[in-house]
Amino acid sequence: MGVRGYKSPVRARHAEDTRRSIVAAATALFTEQGYARTSVAAIAAAAGVAVNTVYTSVGNKSALIMAMSEDGAADAVAVETERRIGACSDPRKILRILAEGTGQVRRRRQDALAILLDNRNADPDVAAAAEAAVRAVRDRLKVAAARLIAVGGLREGLTAKQVEQTLWFYFGFEAWRTVRDFGWSWKDATDWLAEQATRALLPAGG
């Protein structure tokens, strides 16, 4: 009779903590030194682990940059935002939830996103990770667009594609980067983007 494998919760938490520390160290070094100039050895030293631990926990540099992207896609705020949208039947509130949620994720992940967006044309690894990040956000916005269409109340004549594209225009990476580059506070940016998306998608007085 075979012995059933046992997975220790303590060991699993330790492994996840180690992985999180490694990705955080990589993010900090990529920000400070650039992706190309950062070595796995430097990341290991910053995380306080052996070089081999980096490879066994996450992988090489391309895996590290992709892990940054995947962690952003799995951000707890993004997951909760999608849940709240799915439970809401008011289109104006949905747009507000979306503005607040995308803004919070953008704020929490701004260093990692800056690495991806600023270096995607300089390295194929970064380009792949940036593409994955964009795809993850657009997929979530597609879900939000479907919910908006399902609850109704949008301007007449809008197609599903137009709703998706409008959400990306107002809540995608470049929208947040632009308003923040203007020097706006996160609150002011959130309020403005929510209002502009509302005007674009809902009928006057909607």
From TrEMBL:
<protein>
    <recommendedName>
        <fullName>HTH tetR-type domain-containing protein</fullName>
    </recommendedName>
</protein>
<dbReference type="InterPro" id="IPR050109">
    <property type="entry name" value="HTH-type_TetR-like_transc_reg"/>
</dbReference>
<dbReference type="InterPro" id="IPR001647">
    <property type="entry name" value="HTH_TetR"/>
</dbReference>
<keyword id="KW-0804">Transcription</keyword>
<dbReference type="InterPro" id="IPR009057">
    <property type="entry name" value="Homeodomain-like_sf"/>
</dbReference>
<feature type="domain" description="HTH tetR-type">
    <location>
        <begin position="16"/>
        <end position="76"/>
    </location>
</feature>
<keyword id="KW-0805">Transcription regulation</keyword>
<keyword id="KW-0238">DNA-binding</keyword>
<dbReference type="Pfam" id="PF00440">
    <property type="entry name" value="TetR_N"/>
</dbReference>
<feature type="DNA-binding region" description="H-T-H motif">
    <location>
        <begin position="39"/>
        <end position="58"/>
    </location>
</feature>
